[in-house]
């Protein structure tokens, strides 16, 4: 993250004081005389820390800069999910301000005290779903897998538990443990489904921990039914294209209706949408809870 602090007080922690919507934010150190005061915008270098280019949340993030007049001239630093999390961790350790593109479910909300900035213009939309999509013809070719995929549904806390545990152990191991510990829920997906003998199936996912969690859990479930499962991580546009072209069999990864809405509209006639496998997701600008700011409209304009 680009961070510009003026003076000799870089290592000192500070609090952020909101002086009113449209007015300049200030950061100060407990009122000690002689210490520099730095505006919030300057401290952030008028930059929001993003993730991978092409991600649906990045498309919405850039649209937000266009919709809010106070954000004219602000920039979004394209990075990676791992890079964003590293910057977030370092900022919180030093109690510095930072704004990141964020989403839930995600283990960062269990690891840090964070909050979404309010979005009065609704650019990021409200709560979203994560849907399951499959290629046309899958129900006829693999009726057992289709039935499991159609039944698959879990809660945000299930996904977050897998994601958090995967920070210490490989996703493959964590997914197996989760399936073993949640047999009652898994049985709801697999009850009455017949075993197969090594039938190959490919699940296409986006390269984020949310989708790794669901894909690896489904991998374990389908393998227990005798399937030979391949997981293929790709960018969102490629994910939809692969299912539409029949190059992949299914995906548990689309965030709808907004995050991946443009891709869905492009390919909806060539895929089968099985509906939500998780509800209650959210995307937006996220800040540490210690930052005294609550809305996107409160971010200071460039002077």
TrEMBL record:
Residues 39-181, 200-299 form the ABC-type glycine betaine transport system substrate-binding domain. It is found in: Cell membrane. Residues 1-20 form the signal peptide. Keywords: Cell membrane, Membrane, Signal, Transport. Gene3D superfamilies: Dipeptide-binding Protein, Domain 3 (3.10.105.10), Glycine betaine-binding periplasmic protein, domain 2 (3.40.190.100). InterPro entries: ABC_Gly_betaine_transp_sub-bd. It holds the Pfam family OpuAC. Coiled coil: none annotated. This is Glycine betaine/proline transport system substrate-binding protein.
């Amino acid at each position: 993250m680009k961070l510009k602090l003026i003076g000799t007080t870089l290592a000192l922690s500070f609090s952020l004081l909101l002086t009113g919507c449209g007015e300049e934010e200030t950061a100060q150190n407990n009122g000690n005389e002689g210490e520099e005061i730095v505006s919030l915008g300057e401290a952030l270098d008028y930059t929001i820390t993003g993730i991978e280019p092409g991600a649906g949340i990045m498309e919405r993030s850039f649209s937000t800069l266009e919709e809010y007049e106070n954000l004219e001239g602000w920039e979004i630093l394209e990075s990676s999910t791992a890079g964003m999390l590293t910057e977030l961790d370092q900022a919180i350790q030093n109690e510095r301000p930072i704004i990141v593109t964020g989403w839930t479910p995600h283990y960062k909300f269990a690891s840090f005290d964070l909050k979404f900035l309010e979005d009065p213009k609704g650019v990021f939309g409200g709560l979203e779903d994560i849907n399951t999509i499959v290629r046309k013809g899958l129900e006829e070719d693999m009726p057992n897998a289709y039935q499991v995929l159609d039944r698959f549904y879990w809660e945000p806390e299930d996904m977050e538990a897998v994601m958090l545990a995967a920070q210490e152990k490989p996703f493959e191991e964590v997914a197996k443990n989760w399936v073993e510990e949640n047999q009652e829920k898994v049985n709801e997906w697999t009850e009455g489904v017949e075993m197969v003998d090594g039938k190959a199936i490919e699940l296409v996912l986006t390269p984020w921990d949310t989708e790794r969690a669901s894909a690896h859990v489904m991998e374990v479930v389908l393998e227990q039914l005798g399937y030979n499962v391949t997981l293929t991580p790709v960018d969102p546009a490629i994910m939809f294209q692969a299912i539409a072209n029949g190059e992949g069999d299914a995906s548990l990864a689309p965030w709808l209706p907004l995050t991946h809405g443009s891709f869905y509209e492009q390919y909806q006639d060539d895929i089968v949408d099985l509906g939500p496998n998780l509800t209650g997701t959210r995307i937006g600008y996220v800040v540490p809870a210690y930052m005294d700011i609550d809305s996107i409209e409160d971010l200071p304009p460039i002077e």
